[in-house]
Amino acid sequence: MSDTQPVVVQAVRTPQGKHGGVFAETGSEELSVPLVDTMLERTGLTGTDVDDIRWGCAKQVDEQSNNIARVIALCSELGEDVPGTTIDRLCASSAEAIMSASDAIRAGQREVIIAGGVENMSRTERRKGIGSYDGIAEQYDAADLQMGQTAETVADRYDISREEQDAYGARSQQRACEATDEGRFDDEIVPIDTGEQVVEEDEGLRPGTSQEKISGLPPAFEEDGTVTAANASQISDGAAAVMLTSRGFAEEHGLEIMAEVGDHEVAGVNPEVMGIGPVPAVRGIWERNGRSADDYDLVELNEAFASQTLYCQNELGFDDDVFNVNGGAIALGHPLGASGARLPVTLIHELRKQGGGLGLSTMCVGYGQGAAVEFRVPGEK
């Protein structure tokens, strides 16, 4: 095994807060710094060991501007010698941070990189829509590019019924609530002290959710539509991160290797059906590596909307017993720039609980993209 193989030696996240909820008065850097400092403490490393911090953020406005990655470095135990760059691939911003960091380590250019992301959607203004650009407006109806409308389009085009979406939305809540009750998120969550309270648990959980209870909710985007607040991801606040090193560095410093970073892929699709993006992204990995759905012990696919999640699951052929086993963004929330790291964090910890194996993290991305990354957790499998 190559000494430059990128490996994960720490994987953490904040609890995820509801829009206007527990983190509404907490700065984006205040969500991020505790993750960085926790990983340093757990590994015994210092800023002198870290080559870079790469941080995803989809809305780089207000407090999330000014290169939030560098702000985090200066506010954390990393200090002024650690450079930082902020990355925007919309919902896959922190996935891109992980991909670019792993590439740099694999190439032998860096040995230790902290990669993650943050989004405090309660505290940042909405930026202008992509349809405001003349070149885009000439090609598409701006209304068709709104995220909720793309979910309706996927449901209509691929015959995903309201009943199927509600059943999936209820399943996400039920699985996430069960995982929380069983303490399955405890190892990955770093409690956040807001000054008013210490937040230790995801805020968007709705115990007792059932398909029957949510079946009467009104559509959120079309009068006769099928997408509702209960079968779509929640607008959320949160951060997530991993510490990546080369295998050689981890072994030399006695660090536990939680996972190896495998192949990754990004893809573009029609922005009117942006939710199908995971399909070509995942298939790109499969074509290069000779894989299929049966090769994965666990899969985390971001639940932007139940309609696109169901389409992607069915199209790629993932069984329920390996797919989003602890729920997903419908229950936990989708803080845009953080979700691309939150999925691997949850995936790695769950794979460790199950004795290791090969996992896949994948997501759709705004305006017609998809991203996917593989992780292999050492163990008996």
UniProtKB/TrEMBL annotation:
<dbReference type="InterPro" id="IPR002155">
    <property type="entry name" value="Thiolase"/>
</dbReference>
<dbReference type="InterPro" id="IPR020613">
    <property type="entry name" value="Thiolase_CS"/>
</dbReference>
<keyword id="KW-0576">Peroxisome</keyword>
<dbReference type="Pfam" id="PF00108">
    <property type="entry name" value="Thiolase_N"/>
</dbReference>
<comment type="similarity">
    <text>Belongs to the thiolase-like superfamily. Thiolase family.</text>
</comment>
<keyword id="KW-0809">Transit peptide</keyword>
<dbReference type="InterPro" id="IPR050215">
    <property type="entry name" value="Thiolase-like_sf_Thiolase"/>
</dbReference>
<feature type="region of interest" description="Disordered">
    <location>
        <begin position="200"/>
        <end position="222"/>
    </location>
</feature>
<keyword id="KW-0414">Isoprene biosynthesis</keyword>
<feature type="domain" description="Thiolase C-terminal">
    <location>
        <begin position="256"/>
        <end position="374"/>
    </location>
</feature>
<dbReference type="GO" id="GO:0006635">
    <property type="term" value="P:fatty acid beta-oxidation"/>
</dbReference>
<dbReference type="GO" id="GO:0008299">
    <property type="term" value="P:isoprenoid biosynthetic process"/>
</dbReference>
<dbReference type="InterPro" id="IPR020616">
    <property type="entry name" value="Thiolase_N"/>
</dbReference>
<dbReference type="GO" id="GO:0010124">
    <property type="term" value="P:phenylacetate catabolic process"/>
</dbReference>
<keyword id="KW-0012">Acyltransferase</keyword>
<protein>
    <recommendedName>
        <fullName>acetyl-CoA C-acyltransferase</fullName>
        <ecNumber>2.3.1.16</ecNumber>
    </recommendedName>
</protein>
<feature type="domain" description="Thiolase N-terminal">
    <location>
        <begin position="7"/>
        <end position="247"/>
    </location>
</feature>
<dbReference type="Pfam" id="PF02803">
    <property type="entry name" value="Thiolase_C"/>
</dbReference>
<dbReference type="GO" id="GO:0005737">
    <property type="term" value="C:cytoplasm"/>
</dbReference>
<keyword id="KW-0276">Fatty acid metabolism</keyword>
<dbReference type="InterPro" id="IPR020617">
    <property type="entry name" value="Thiolase_C"/>
</dbReference>
<dbReference type="GO" id="GO:0003988">
    <property type="term" value="F:acetyl-CoA C-acyltransferase activity"/>
</dbReference>
<keyword id="KW-0443">Lipid metabolism</keyword>
<keyword id="KW-0808">Transferase</keyword>
<dbReference type="InterPro" id="IPR016039">
    <property type="entry name" value="Thiolase-like"/>
</dbReference>
<dbReference type="InterPro" id="IPR020610">
    <property type="entry name" value="Thiolase_AS"/>
</dbReference>
